[in-house]
Amino acid sequence: MHSQEELLDFIKNGHKQYLPHVSIDPVIFGYSDQKLKILLLKWKGLEGWGLPGGYIKREEPISQAANRILEERTGLKNVFLQQFYTFGDSHYRTHEQSLKEITQEQGEDILKGSWLFERTLSISYFSLVDHSKVNVTTDFFTYDYHWFGIDEIPELLFEQNEVVDKALTTLRLQLYHQPIGSNLLPEKFTLPEIHSLYETILDKKLDQRNFLRKMMTLGIIKKLDEQRSIGAHRSPFLYQFEKENYEEALKQGIIHAN
Amino acid sequence: MHSQEELLDFIKNGHKQYLPHVSIDPVIFGYSDQKLKILLLKWKGLEGWGLPGGYIKREEPISQAANRILEERTGLKNVFLQQFYTFGDSHYRTHEQSLKEITQEQGEDILKGSWLFERTLSISYFSLVDHSKVNVTTDFFTYDYHWFGIDEIPELLFEQNEVVDKALTTLRLQLYHQPIGSNLLPEKFTLPEIHSLYETILDKKLDQRNFLRKMMTLGIIKKLDEQRSIGAHRSPFLYQFEKENYEEALKQGIIHAN
DNA sequence: TTATCAATCCGTCAAATTAACGGAATAAAA
DNA sequence: TTTTATTCCGTTAATTTGACGGATTGATAA
């Protein structure tokens, strides 16, 4: 994947191409088997789990950087990806230990003063992706990955549990106001599908009829007059997202009137 | 205030003390005469208006940096200050033009390669302060300040109108869920005072009785059994914030049940 | 062909919340 | 004691939310 030469070049010269002191760390939620999971990578040297991450190119808009980094790790383009917070309080992340391991055989000279040792702020994004479409590629610092159910997240490196928690809170808060489901469901989906998705994300039973009413009232989805033929039972109607309406819902919906 | 020597040292050596590429830019809302205003500074050289800003010290947590920067410009400590977004898309802010003016007499040599010329991401916070308690101090780059009503914000430097807009939207969204008013009102305040504050911030009439009921239901304020003696009229009761309840309200209140 | 099964679909009523509304009480000054 | 400006409060209608179960459909099995 990445040759040792590339790695050494990255350590020595990465700061010429990337902004130092700032990384982008997406919390990637995936959905499969009615479970909500997040993608974590296993660090070389540190032998612990952490979020995928990457650096911003010197001339690259940060939203573009976030999309690029997501694509580099997952292969996915054009998915919902939203910034939610920038961490830089207790979070003095560096790659020191990790790099010592990786570059052991080279001696430690090359590490002296590397940009990767410096304090790094973390601009965090979250994303929801279709688990089955993801093709994970590890990066220089990592060698394995795993999708962890959100109730089985281990203690993470770099104090990233806080990041994950805030991502989840934000996801749930915005669920009715951002086109969050649109990467997880097929273009046309059934009511039970989206219903189950929302129940999973909120970790809560939602009455089916009330759920439908709410989604229709907010204008988030619209009913088509097609049905899908599922195996053995009654054919469910298909629905589609109405993306244009989401942000409206946000503004109208949360600023409590009067 | 700042000597020319200090400025030159800051230009040449600031990157040893501060993280380059990242600034903190608080949108400081002030309230007076029933108007909502923001504090803008006038840039030397560029002759335009922009947000106050500052850099993060190399070992300083960012929330602490934000508070320090706010204090440096306004003299205020311990006020409500909240991060809301990190801008870095179209926002390639540098101090190049400004610095050329300021350091004119020194020749331009010192500017070569200054850390201040590099691209800077902006971690943005907003704050609400009591206009009358603020003691504005300009910084190296600025020489004047003004409180602009939010409906009379000029075109800002560094594409900061976007920042201000997002700050205002966020402020309004969170008004019922964060202890936002607590820096703007005295410890004990009357119902008409807080009512008028909320009307001003939301730019909207709020029915007085319904407003009271809502604040009480959310547990944001509590009624004391003291009254204040105002000049000529009926004595209003006093109220106090119940800060502990705000964040509760956030979690319980926005995640729409069922 | 019919019965069975598993899943989807839908409507009503009660409870809670929100929105609209005006008149009585108070404190000082005239 | 009257006037004036201001605070205080309660009720009703409309809307939204929450709870609830029975009828329909599409295929498979008898």
From TrEMBL, chains A, B:
Residue intervals of the Nudix hydrolase domain: 19-172
Any Pfam family matching the protein: WHD_NrtR
UniProt xrefs under Gene3D superfamilies: Nucleoside Triphosphate Pyrophosphohydrolase (3.90.79.10), Winged helix-like DNA-binding domain superfamily/Winged helix DNA-binding domain (1.10.10.10)
PANTHER family documented for this protein: ADP-RIBOSE PYROPHOSPHATASE, SLR1690 PROTEIN
Protein name from the UniProt record: NUDIX domain-containing protein
Species, as recorded: Algoriphagus aquaeductus
Source lineage: Bacteria, Pseudomonadati, Bacteroidota, Cytophagia, Cytophagales
